C-alpha cells in the first residue's frame, strides 16, 4: 500500500499537528473459530479516538491496514470510506479543535506473526490469538496514530468465543453480556498495546513488597501445560522486581504483570506493559542445559527493564531505539548476574551477545547506535546487533566510565523527570552529566554517534631480565575512541594453570596508550587486553600470547577470561587473520575442557561455521570429519546425564557425515545403541533424525513416523524442516515454490522450510536457485509482509555458492536495483558482505594448507 511506510518527517509533522486524549477499541473475535476459511479471515474492529488539533500541517491521516472499512465518522459527520481510506490510511480533513473519530473496520487475522496472529493447535484443534505490533502493526488491528510519541490511554473491550479468556494491558473481567472489558491504561504508545485471547493454560501468583502488590500471571497453550515450569518463571520475575525496585526508586507503574508464551512468535519477546509476550520455545519440552534457562531469565529481565526503559519513558522516534533496547539488553545481564542464580551471565554476554554486535558493526550497513531512521522499514531492520548488543556493551563501558552509582542515580532521575513522556538522546545525557560530573556529549559523540569497532593490541618490550619495560595498547579503527579497559597479565603456574598475576585499569585514548602501572612486572605468558570485558572492542594478541593460547587456552582458570579469548580467536578467524583450520584445531583441543555450557555451545557453533564457511573447499570434508570424531569422542567421555553430554550429543549429530556416524544415530533412535546417561527425549530425537534426512537416510515415511510420535505444533515444524532438507531436486523445487511462489505457509513454517532448504552438504543441489533468487526478491519484497520478506531475503541468499561468480551476481543486482526499497538493498548488501568475508577467510585458510 502506498502509505504503509510512514516516514519520520510525516510522523514529526503529525505530532506537531495533534495530541491524543484517548482510545476506545472494541474488537469482536468470535469469527476466530469459524468453520470456513472465509469466516476466520477477518474480525470486526471499532475504534473511537479522541484527539485535539494543536497546530497546522498536511499530515491529517489515521493509520489502518485492513481489508475493508465499514464506516468512518468524524465529529458526527459520516465520511465515505471509499473516498477517505486507501488501504493503509484514512484521511481526516476538516479537523476541529477537539475531535472524535469513529472507525468501523474489518481487520484481518494474520499468519505472519504481525497484527492479530491466529494459530490452530494441531494437537487438539484449539485456536489461539495474540497481537504483535512493534514497530507499527497495531494499525492491523485498530485505527490509530501509529508513532511512538503520540501516547494516549486505552480502553479495550473484546467479545470472544465462548469458553475463552481474554487478556490485555490492563486488568479485565467479563461482563454480563460476555464482553471482556479492561481497565484504562496509563498513557502508552500504540506498539505496546496488546490483546491475547484463547483457551490458554493460566497460572497465577503475586509479588509483594511493602504496600505494593503486583498480580502475576503466566500462560501457554493447553497442550504445552505439562511442560510449563511456571514456578521458575515466577521466581525470576520476582527477583527482577526486587532488583528494579531496589535500584530504580520508581515502583512498577502498570498494575498487573502477565507473561504469555505464544506460538509462531517472530521475536524473542515483547514488552507490552502488563502483558508481556514471549515465543513459546522458552517452554522446554525436553532436557536443555542451564544456558537455556539463563537465556530465558535474561529475556524475562530484559522485558521487565522495558517497563521503565521504553514503556514508562519512550523514545520520540525510532532513531533513539537504543534508549530502550540497549538499556534493556544491558539490564538483562546486569540483573541476571546480581539477582538470580545465573551469576556468570557476563561470561555469556562477552561470548555470545558481543559476537552478534561485532558481526553487525563490521557490515557495510553498520550504523551509529543512535541511528538515522528515515521510515518504518528502516526501523524494522534496526532491531539488530548494534542497537541491542553493541548498545548494551557501550552501556557497560558507560558504567565503568561514569561509575555504577552515578549511572543508577541517572536512571532514577530520568524516570521521574520524564514519566509517561517521550525523550531524545540529549534528555538522558543531560541527566547523566548531572550525576557523574563527566562530559557526556563527548562520550556520546565517540560511542553513540559513530559506527565501527576498534581493535586493541598489546605491544610489550622487555629488559634483559625478562621484565616489562613498557606495555602499550595500540588502537585501530576509523574512529579512535576513549576506552576504560583493564589489561591482565597471565602466567602458567607450577600445576599447569594459566592464572592472572597482575592487572591494571586505564583510559585508552588515541592510537597508542602506555599502561605505566605494568612496567617492571615479570614477563607474562599471556597479555589480555580488555580483561574483565569493560569495553567494547576486538581483542588482538602479541605473538607470544597467541602461541600460549594455541597450547594452553583450556588452562585459563577464570571463565570470563577464557570466554574473551575464545571470542578473540573467533574474530581473528572471521577477519581472515587466523586460518579456519587453526580455530578448529584449538576448538578440538580445548572445547572438551570448557566448563561454561553457554561458551561451549558458542564454540560448537563457531567451529561448524569455520568448516562450512571459512575453510577452503578442499579441506571441508576433512574438517567435518574431524569435528564429528571430536564430538563423538567428547560425547563418550562426558559425565553421564550431564548437560555437557547433551551438548556434545547435539554437536555430534550436527556434524555426523560417515556411515558409522549414521548407524550410531539410527541405533540411538531405535534403541539398539546406548550411551550411558544419554536420555533420548523427543527433542533430541528430532536432532538425531535431522542429519539422516539431510544425507538421504530418512525418507518421507520415516519422517512421518516421527511426526506420529510428536504430532504437535513443534513436531510439525520439525517435520517441515526435515522434509525440505532431503537431498532431492524435486524436494528443493517444492520447498522453493512453497516459500517464494506461494504465501500459504505461516511465518513459522516459512522459517522451517528455509532452514531445511539451505544445507551446506547440498551446495550443488541448490546452486540453480542462485539466479532465481535475484530474479524474485524485489517482487517478493513488494508482495509480502516485511517480516516474511526479511526471512526469505536473508534466509535464501545463495551464500553457500561461495564463489566470485555469486559475489558478482549480488553486485550486479545491487547496481541494477539502485531504486529498490532501501531495506531490501540493505539485506542484500549485508549478505553479500558475509560472502565476501567468507572468501577472504578461505584465502587465509588456503595459505595454511
Describe this structure in words.
- The protein is 44% helix and 20% strand.
- The chain has 849 residues and is an alpha+beta fold.
- The protein is globular.
Morphology:
globular
Low-confidence stretches: none
Average pLDDT metric: 95
Strand runs, count: 28
Tell me the fraction of residues in β-strands, as a range.
15-25%
How many individual helices? 28
Q: Which value, in Å, is the CA radius of gyration?
A: 27 Å
> What kind of sheet is the major sheet?
12 strands, mixed
Which structural class best describes the helix and strand composition? alpha+beta
- What is the helical fraction, as a range of percent? 40-55%
Terminal-residue CA separation: 54 Å
Per-chain topology:
Layout: H1 8-17, E1 18-28, E2 42-53, E3 61-63, E4 68-74, E5 77-79, H2 81-84, E6 89-91, E7 98-110, E8 115-120, E9 127-132, E10 154-159, E11 165-168, E12 172-174, E13 179-182, E14 195-198, E15 201-209, E16 212-220, H3 230-248, E17 257-262, E18 269-270, E19 275-279, H4 290-306, E20 314-315, H5 322-339, H6 345-361, H7 376-381, H8 386-402, H9 404-418, E21 422-423, H10 425-436, H11 440-447, E22 455-462, E23 468-476, E24 483-492, E25 498-508, E26 512-514, E27 526-531, E28 538-539, H12 543-552, H13 559-574, H14 580-590, H15 597-614, H16 617-637, H17 643-655, H18 659-670, H19 682-694, H20 700-709, H21 713-724, H22 729-741, H23 747-757, H24 763-766, H25 769-783, H26 786-795, H27 804-816, H28 822-847
Parallel strand pairs: 1-10, 7-8, 16-17, 17-19, 20-21, 22-28
Antiparallel strand pairs: 1-2, 2-7, 3-6, 4-5, 4-7, 8-9, 9-14, 10-13, 11-14, 12-13, 15-16, 18-19, 22-23, 23-26, 24-25, 24-27
Helix pairs in contact: 3-4, 3-5, 4-5, 5-8, 6-8, 6-13, 8-9, 9-10, 13-15, 14-15, 15-16, 15-17, 16-17, 17-19, 18-19, 19-21, 20-21, 21-23, 22-23, 23-26, 25-26, 26-28, 27-28
Amino acid at each position: 500500500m502506498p502509505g504503509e511506510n510512514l516516514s519520520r518527517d510525516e510522523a514529526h509533522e503529525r505530532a506537531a499537528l495533534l495530541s491524543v486524549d484517548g482510545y476506545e477499541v472494541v474488537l469482536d473475535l468470535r469469527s476466530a473459530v469459524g468453520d470456513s476459511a472465509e469466516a476466520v479471515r477477518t474480525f470486526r474492529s471499532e475504534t473511537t479516538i479522541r484527539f485535539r488539533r494543536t497546530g497546522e500541517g498536511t499530515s491529517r491521516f489515521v493509520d489502518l491496514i485492513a481489508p475493508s472499512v465499514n464506516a468512518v465518522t468524524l465529529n458526527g459527520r459520516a465520511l465515505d470510506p471509499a473516498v477517505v481510506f486507501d488501504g493503509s490510511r484514512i484521511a481526516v480533513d476538516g479537523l476541529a479543535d477537539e475531535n472524535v473519530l469513529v472507525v468501523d473496520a474489518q481487520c484481518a487475522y494474520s499468519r505472519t506473526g504481525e497484527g492479530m496472529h491466529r494459530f490452530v493447535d494441531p494437537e487438539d484443534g484449539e485456536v489461539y490469538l495474540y497481537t504483535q505490533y512493534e514497530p507499527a502493526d497495531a494499525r492491523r488491528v485498530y485505527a490509530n496514530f501509529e508513532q511512538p510519541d503520540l501516547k494516549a490511554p486505552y480502553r479495550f473491550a473484546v467479545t470472544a468465543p465462548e469458553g475463552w479468556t481474554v487478556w490485555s494491558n490492563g486488568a479485565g473481567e467479563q461482563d454480563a453480556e460476555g464482553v471482556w472489558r479492561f481497565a484504562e491504561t496509563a498513557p502508552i504508545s500504540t506498539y505496546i498495546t496488546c490483546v491475547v485471547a484463547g483457551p490458554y493454560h493460566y497460572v497465577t501468583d503475586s509479588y509483594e513488597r511493602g504496600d505494593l502488590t503486583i498480580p502475576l500471571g503466566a500462560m501457554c497453550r493447553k497442550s504445552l501445560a505439562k511442560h510449563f515450569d511456571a514456578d521458575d518463571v515466577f521466581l525470576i520475575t520476582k527477583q527482577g522486581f526486587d532488583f528494579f525496585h531496589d535500584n530504580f526508586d520508581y515502583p512498577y507503574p502498570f498494575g498487573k504483570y502477565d507473561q504469555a508464551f505464544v506460538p509462531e512468535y517472530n521475536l524473542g519477546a515483547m514488552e507490552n506493559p502488563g502483558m508481556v509476550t514471549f515465543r513459546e520455545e522458552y517452554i522446554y519440552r525436553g532436557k536443555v542445559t542451564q544456558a537455556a534457562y539463563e537465556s530465558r531469565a535474561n529475556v524475562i529481565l530484559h522485558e521487565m527493564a522495558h517497563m521503565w526503559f521504553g514503556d514508562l519513558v519512550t523514545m520520540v522516534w525510532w532513531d533513539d531505539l537504543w534508549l530502550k533496547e540497549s538499556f534493556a539488553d544491558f539490564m538483562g545481564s546486569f540483573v541476571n548476574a546480581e539477582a538470580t542464580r545465573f551469576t556468570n551471565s557476563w561470561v555469556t554476554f562477552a561470548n555470545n551477545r558481543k559476537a552478534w554486535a561485532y558481526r553487525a558493526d563490521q557490515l557495510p550497513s553498520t550504523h551509529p547506535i543512535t541511528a538515522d531512521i528515515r521510515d518504518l522499514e528502516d526501523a524494522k531492520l534496526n532491531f539488530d546487533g548494534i542497537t541491542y548488543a553493541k548498545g548494551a556493551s557501550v552501556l557497560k563501558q558507560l558504567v565503568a566510565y561514569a561509575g555504577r552509582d552515578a549511572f543508577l542515580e541517572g536512571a532514577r532521575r530520568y524516570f521521574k523527570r520524564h514519566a509517561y513522556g517521550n525523550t531524545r538522546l540529549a534528555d538522558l545525557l543531560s541527566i547523566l552529566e548531572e550525576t557523574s560530573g563527566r562530559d557526556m556529549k563527548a562520550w556520546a559523540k565517540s560511542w553513540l554517534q559513530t559506527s565501527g569497532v576498534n581493535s586493541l593490541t598489546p605491544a610489550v618490550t622487555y629488559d634483559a631480565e625478562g621484565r616489562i619495560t613498557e606495555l602499550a595498547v595500540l588502537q585501530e579503527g576509523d574512529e579512535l575512541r576513549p576506552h576504560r579497559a583493564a589489561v591482565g597479565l597471565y602466567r602458567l603456574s607450577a600445576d599447569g594453570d594459566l592464572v592472572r598475576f597482575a592487572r591494571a585499569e586505564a583510559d585508552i585514548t588515541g592510537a597508542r596508550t602506555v599502561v605505566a602501572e605494568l612496567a617492571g612486572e615479570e614477563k607474562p605468558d599471556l597479555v589480555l587486553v580488555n580483561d574483565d570485558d569493560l569495553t567494547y572492542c576486538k581483542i588482538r594478541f602479541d605473538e607470544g600470547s597467541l602461541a600460549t593460547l594455541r597450547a594452553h587456552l583450556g588452562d585459563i582458570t577464570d571463565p570470563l577470561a577464557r570466554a574473551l579469548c575464545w571470542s578473540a580467536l573467533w574474530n581473528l578467524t572471521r577477519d581472515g587473520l587466523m586460518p579456519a583450520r587453526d580455530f578448529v584445531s584449538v576448538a578440538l583441543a580445548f572445547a572438551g575442557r570448557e566448563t561454561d555450557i553457554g561458551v561451549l555451545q558458542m564454540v560448537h557453533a563457531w567451529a561448524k561455521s569455520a568448516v562450512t564457511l571459512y575453510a577452503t573447499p578442499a579441506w571441508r570434508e576433512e574438517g567435518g570429519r574431524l569435528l564429528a570424531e571430536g564430538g563423538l569422542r567428547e560425547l563418550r567421555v562426558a559425565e553421564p546425564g550431564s548437560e555437557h553430554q547433551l551438548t556434545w550429543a547435539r554437536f555430534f549429530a550436527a556434524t555426523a557425515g560417515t556411515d558409522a556416524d549414521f548407524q550410531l544415530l539410527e541405533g540411538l533412535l531405535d534403541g539398539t545403541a546406548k550411551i550411558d546417561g544419554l536420555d533420548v527425549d523427543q527433542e533430541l530425537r528430532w536432532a538425531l533424525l535431522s542429519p539422516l534426512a539431510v544425507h538421504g537416510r530418512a525418507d518421507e515415511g520415516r519422517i512421518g513416523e516421527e511426526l506420529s510420535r510428536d504430532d504437535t505444533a513443534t513436531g510439525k515444524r520439525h517435520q517441515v524442516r526435515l522434509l525440505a532438507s532431503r537431498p532431492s531436486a524435486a524436494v528443493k523445487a517444492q520447498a522453493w515454490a512453497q516459500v517464494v511462489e506461494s504465501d500459504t505457509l505461516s511465518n513459522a513454517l516459512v522459517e522451517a522450510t528455509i532452514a531445511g532448504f539451505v544445507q551446506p552438504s547440498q551446495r550443488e543441489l541448490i546452486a540453480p536457485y542462485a539466479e532465481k533468487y535475484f530474479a524474485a526478491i524485489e517482487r517478493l519484497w513488494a508482495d509480502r509482509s516485511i517480516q516474511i520478506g526479511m526471512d526469505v531475503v536473508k534466509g535464501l541468499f545463495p551464500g553457500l555458492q561461495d564463489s566470485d561468480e555469486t559475489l558478482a551476481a549480488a553486485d550486479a543486482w545491487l547496481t541494477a536495483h539502485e531504486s529498490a526499497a532501501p531495506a531490501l538493498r540493505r539485506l542484500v548488501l549485508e549478505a553479500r558482505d558475509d560472502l565476501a568475508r567468507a572468501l577472504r577467510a578461505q584465502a587465509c585458510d588456503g595459505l595454511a594448507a
